[in-house]
Amino acid sequence: MVVPFIIHPKVVHTPVVDRDFVLVAQQFSILPNATIPNSNAMDWNFLTLNGRSGPYTTPLVCKLGERVRIRFINFSTLHQHPMHLHGHTFWITGTEGGRIPDSAWIPSNNVVVGVAQSRDVEFIANNPGDWVLHCHMFHHMMNHMTSQVGPIIRQVKNDPGFQVPGYPQIMKGMSSMKMEGMKAVSEGDNEYAMKMTMKDMQKITSRRETQGMRDGWYKGVKGLFSVVRVLPPELYDKLMNTDEPIPPNSSTPWNPHGRGAMPGMRMSQAVTP
Ligand SMILES: [Cu+2]
């Protein structure tokens, strides 16, 4: 387990942020069927943010208009992480050495965080919607060289490629799963097959922070991914301060059910400090 040790300044930095997140990136070598990471390995196949891989990472929920800081800390042993935020432009405002003078802030939407470095970024959450935040190294957008942890994303039925016994080709889509009691079991019937239980599914979708996201959002959030959610105040309050159910597609601009975009939604935005 890793926790950040942050010393706050005696005099608060301005402009003051409304929300302050920390994301610690790590990487592990977890070989097929292993239950513990191989810490001697020089190659890595699992990436985590705050100890979890997407889609198990917890979305960062913000209210529209807030000034948000994210502190990225790279606790990986071997790799840099170019962290990329969709929908917003941020400024790089701090490093592991402290605050950067305002005049030297760099506008960006991607910041490289080297091993043992930290990078603070700040942005104004002025673009409503759910925006992925992820490392842009392609192999870090997935785990163990497959496009998804768990048998969710591949929807190709009867693809002979999946008949190769072993790992990870056996990971079939939900379309090739059958339900056995409370368990969804791959039809591959291979001892290495990934088994997804309803409990796993529930773990992904039942967290309060994920309520109202687009149907199937977890299919595109994997590896070193999280989601920044920028919600209009009413939706934010309903989500974070009540137990009311929030239907899928409540906070996304493009949804398959034609509920229409949230007001003010746009694809990209650059603003000045
Ligand atoms: Cu990375």
UniProtKB/TrEMBL annotation:
Residues 244-273 are annotated as: Disordered. Pfam families: Cu-oxidase_2 (PF07731). Keywords: Copper, Metal-binding, Oxidoreductase. It comes from the Bacteria. Residues 38-149 form the Plastocyanin-like domain. Coiled coil: none annotated. This is Multicopper oxidase. It comes from Stieleria magnilauensis.
